[in-house]
Design a protein that fits this description.
heterodimer; A: 40% helix; B: three-stranded parallel β-sheet; three-stranded antiparallel β-sheet; 6 strands; 10% strand
Chain lengths: 360, 262
């Protein structure tokens, strides 16, 4: 596997400075505030909101199953559910009952209420829903957040939207920590953290003793991850550093008790055929794993061997069975002696998704 | 609740629980003395044919079963030898223990998943293997939260569908049942604390015990009320305070030709 070469090609567009671990300009990137956290300053006539809702619903219905047929995208049922969530995030009163009355097209409960307070202007609501349907802009970028485990994480263009599958990594860490006290008290790393999802999830497990460092190459991801860490009040246990995989972690080499990652793992050839929400809108940097998709996973394996303490734990997400088996084989043969207790774990859809193990 | 108690009663299932081991004790089919129901068919869900241990953290062990869910009413005889192990009552299990008895399934599992998909289909379906009861949740925005909702729903379904037979002659209501009774109950001691309402998660345990009693007295509210130190009206009001409890009782009463409670 010619790691160095593919990495060089892939990042040839990046300036050299982006690899350094501290960039002063980073603080100038201000993350977008998710819709549900914005102040409800727009007073809108409820009849106008109903009109928008009716329009949005018929637009969603007009999609039918055409997106499903073209690229396995969302059908109109799912889009209508998203529409209700958009309303939920836009309305001042988030109570599901007020949204439900919209969802059920039962506007009676709003009779007598002339105006409702929104966190977004009506014009913008029209604009956003148009983008959702016509440009296939992901719903999570529209509302600026994703519900993941018990967290609500801020996301925006340039940051991978955390996936439901990845929720399991936190459970895998939780299991490992509950079986070994030492793991809960040490230093963890989430490399390629994106929105900071896994780092925050595992910080909450080991919050009283352990620490987590999250790294990402993308300055946007770093600022969004910092925003999320602060929103959960975890800045004392979770540190976000910018840089390429393990490079910002040189000072803690050999000291980590755990490494987790959901690196880009989609084979380059598959990128063009992805669901439009993913392929057209999510950062390629977070998806493209090189020709066979496994470039960064292999990089993580060799990095983990150097970074982990003996007995340290790792959990990596992969593209599926093929990559899982390849990685286990690689660790058992090519870099034999580095890791033990290797395990392949399936996601809830039954797809072999994660490789876990321990530093020998 | 898409459960017809009428059809459930027809396929009443009697089985004795395995206590501590994985081996399943062959079902001993018997008609509980207190139950007047005719046993029309007896199904036995043999869990040992499937993967032997299923932990939701280790879905590698997961195998999909094509079997359609059977909606049985499941009846357990209280087993005096059960005192050495948990197991007579699923509701006493912790979330983790209960989850280990379940097969979890996510919808739309086609395709490679992971980074390939922008999935808002965070829906979760739990199948409780020992009973075949299925609970699902789709309305939450994260899979994790849907799992918690599905588990909560499963507990309610277990309370409604799993019946423990009891001996009316020596009946004394368990504490969890006393706790959901109104304070005016004459058998409710002051040590039971305040009345637990339907919104409290502990209500489910009391609800299960109450249904056990009502089934044992063939749906007679006045008879059950006597055993609980309550007037018929007071017990009716308790039953009507929770939708699933009301439906379960009315389905039973309907099957007995009794008028539903309103």
């Amino acid at each position: 596997m010619k790691l160095g070469l593919s990495r060089a090609c892939f990042y040839s567009s990046c300036s050299a400075s982006i690899f350094s671990s501290s960039i002063p300009s980073l603080t100038t990137i201000k993350p977008k505030i998710p819709l549900f956290l914005r102040p409800p300053t727009y007073s809108v006539a409820s009849s106008d909101l109903q009109k928008w809702h009716g329009w949005a619903k018929s637009l969603a219905s007009s999609v039918g199953s055409s997106f499903v047929e073209s690229d396995d995208g969302p059908d109109s049922t799912l889009l209508c559910r998203e529409l209700n969530w958009l309303l939920e995030d836009s309305l001042e009163n988030r109570s599901s009952s007020s949204c439900f009355s919209f969802a059920a097209c039962n506007y009676d409960s709003l009779d007598g209420i002339e105006n409702v307070m929104l966190r977004i202007s009506l014009d913008d609501l029209y604009q956003l829903w148009k983008q959702r349907i016509e440009e296939r802009r992901p719903f999570q970028y529209i509302v600026g957040c994703e519900h993941w485990r018990d967290l609500v994480l801020s996301v925006q263009e340039g940051v991978l939207i955390p996936r439901p599958e990845t929720e399991l990594i936190v459970d895998l860490v939780s299991d490992a920590v509950s079986n070994n006290e030492e793991l809960g008290q040490g230093l963890w790393a989430d490399v390629g953290t994106g929105s900071g999802a896994i780092a925050i999830g595992i910080s909450k497990i080991s919050r009283s003793y352990g620490r987590v460092i999250a790294t990402d190459l993308s300055p946007v991801a770093v600022s969004v991850a910092m925003f999320n860490v602060q929103r959960y009040g975890l800045q004392h246990v979770t540190e976000v550093r910018q840089g390429y995989w393990f490079e910002p972690l040189k000072d803690v080499e050999g000291q980590l008790v755990g490494i987790v990652s959901n690196p880009p793992y989609i084979p380059s050839d598959n990128i063009s055929g992805l669901q439009a929400e993913v392929g057209r809108h999510e950062p390629r940097l977070a998806l493209d794993g090189g020709a066979s998709g496994i470039d960064y996973l292999l990089h993580l394996c060799s990095g983990a061997a150097a970074m982990l303490k003996p007995g340290g734990f790792f959990a990596f997400e992969t593209n599926g069975e093929k990559q899982c088996k390849f990685l286990v084989d690689y660790m058992q043969n090519d870099i034999a002696g580095s890791f033990c207790n290797l395990n392949i774990v399936s996601d809830f859809a039954g797809i072999q998704r994660f490789v876990t193990g321990f530093r020998q | 609740m898409a459960v017809s108690a009428h059809s459930l009663l027809k396929s009443m299932l009697l089985l004795r629980l395995p206590i501590t081991t994985n081996t399943i004790v062959p079902p001993r089919v018997s008609r509980p003395s207190s139950s007047p129901l005719n046993l029309i068919s007896c199904h036995y869900l043999n869990a040992s044919n499937r993967t032997k241990s299923r932990h939701f953290h280790s879905p590698t062990l997961y195998t999909r079963t094509a079997e359609t869910p059977k909606k049985h009413l499941i009846c357990f005889n209280y087993n005096t030898s059960a005192s050495h192990g948990k197991g007579t009552n699923y509701l006493e299990l912790t979330d983790d223990e209960l989850m280990r008895q379940c097969e979890m399934d996510t919808f739309k599992a086609s395709g490679p998943g992971g980074q390939h998909r922008n999935k808002r289909e965070s829906a979760v379906r739990l199948k409780h293997l020992p009973t075949g009861i299925i609970a699902q949740a789709v309305e939450d925005r994260s899979q994790h939260m849907n799992r918690a909702s599905a588990l909560k729903r499963l507990r309610a379904l277990l309370a409604i569908r799993v019946r423990n037979s009891l001996d009316i002659d020596s009946y004394s209501p368990p504490l969890e049942l006393l706790q959901i009774l109104p304070l005016k109950s004459t058998i409710r001691g002051s040590d039971c604390g305040p009345q637990i309402g339907p919104k409290n998660p502990k209500f489910i345990l009391g609800m299960q015990a109450l249904l056990d009693l009502i089934f044992a007295v063939d749906g007679s509210i006045s008879e059950a009320g006597k055993l609980l130190g309550l007037s018929t009206g007071a017990l009716s009001r308790l039953i009507l305070s929770d939708d699933s409890l009301r439906m379960a009782v009315n389905d039973l009463r309907n099957s007995k030709g009794l008028k539903p409670l309103r």
